[in-house]
C-alpha cells in the first residue's frame, strides 16, 4: 500500500499517483519506487511526508503492517526545506520511529534496501531525505538509538547548480 499524508490524514494513493509524484528522473525516486513498488507494497506501507507545515498523520498509528515514513526534506536545494526545526511533525516522528536513515547523499539502491529490511525487522522506520547541511540537525532532533547517517562522498549534497558538472 502506498500512502500519502496531507493535512494530517493518511490516504491511500494509487501507484500511478505515486509515479507522477516521483517522475522527476531523479535516481532517488527510482529507488523509492522500488520500496513502494509491487514487491515492497506487498510487505510494507510507505507514508510520504512532503510538507514541513503538515501535522503528524495520526492515522499512521492504525496501520497494521510495517511502515516507513519518508520525509522529503531534499527538494534539490543545498538548504533543503529547513531541516528538522522547520518540520511540524518532528516531535511526533521522534516518538514514533524505532530506526531512522538520514540520507544526505546521492541515491543507491542498497541504501533503500536497508530501509526496507529495517522496516520489516522493527516495524516503524523513518527515511529522512535531506541535504548534507541538515544531517546533523535531523540527528539531534530524532535522537534515535538505531540511526544510520548516509554522508555524501564529495562532502556536499546536493551539488549547487553552479558547481554541477554537465
Walk me through what this model shows:
With 166 residues, the chain is an alpha/beta fold. The chain has one domain (2-153). It is built from six helices and seven strands. The chain has a seven-stranded mixed sheet with strand order 2-1-3-4-6-5-7, with helices on both faces. Helix 2 (27-36) packs parallel to helix 5. The longest helix is centred in the last third of the chain and has 14 residues, at 109-122. The protein is globular. Mean pLDDT is 74; it is low at 1-27 and 160-166.
How many strand units?
7
Q: Rough shape? A: globular
Give the terminus-to-terminus CA distance.
37 Å
SSE order, as H and E?
EEHHHEEHEHEHE
Structural class: alpha/beta
- Computed over alpha carbons, the radius of gyration is 15 Å
Amino acid at each position: 500500500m502506498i500512502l500519502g499524508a496531507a493535512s494530517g490524514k493518511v490516504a491511500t494513493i494509487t501507484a500511478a499517483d505515486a509515479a507522477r509524484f516521483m517522475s522527476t528522473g531523479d535516481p532517488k525516486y527510482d529507488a523509492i519506487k522500488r520500496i513502494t513498488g509491487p514487491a515492497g507494497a506487498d510487505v510494507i506501507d510507505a507514508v510520504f511526508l512532503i510538507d514541513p507545515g503538515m501535522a503528524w498523520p495520526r492515522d499512521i498509528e492504525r496501520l497494521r503492517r510495517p511502515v516507513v515514513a519518508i520525509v522529503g526534506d531534499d527538494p534539490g536545494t543545498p538548504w533543503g526545506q529547513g531541516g528538522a526545526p522547520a518540520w511540524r511533525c518532528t516531535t511526533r516522528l521522534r516518538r514514533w520511529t524505532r530506526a531512522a536513515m538520514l540520507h544526505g547523499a546521492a541515491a543507491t539502491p542498497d541504501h533503500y534496501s536497508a530501509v526496507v529490511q529495517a522496516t520489516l525487522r522493527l516495524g516503524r522506520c523513518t527515511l529522512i531525505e535531506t541535504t548534507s547541511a541538515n544531517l546533523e540537525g535531523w540527528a539531534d532532533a530524532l535522537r534515535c538509538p538505531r540511526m544510520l547517517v548516509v554522508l555524501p562522498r564529495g562532502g556536499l549534497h546536493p551539488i549547487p547548480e553552479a558547481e554541477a558538472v554537465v
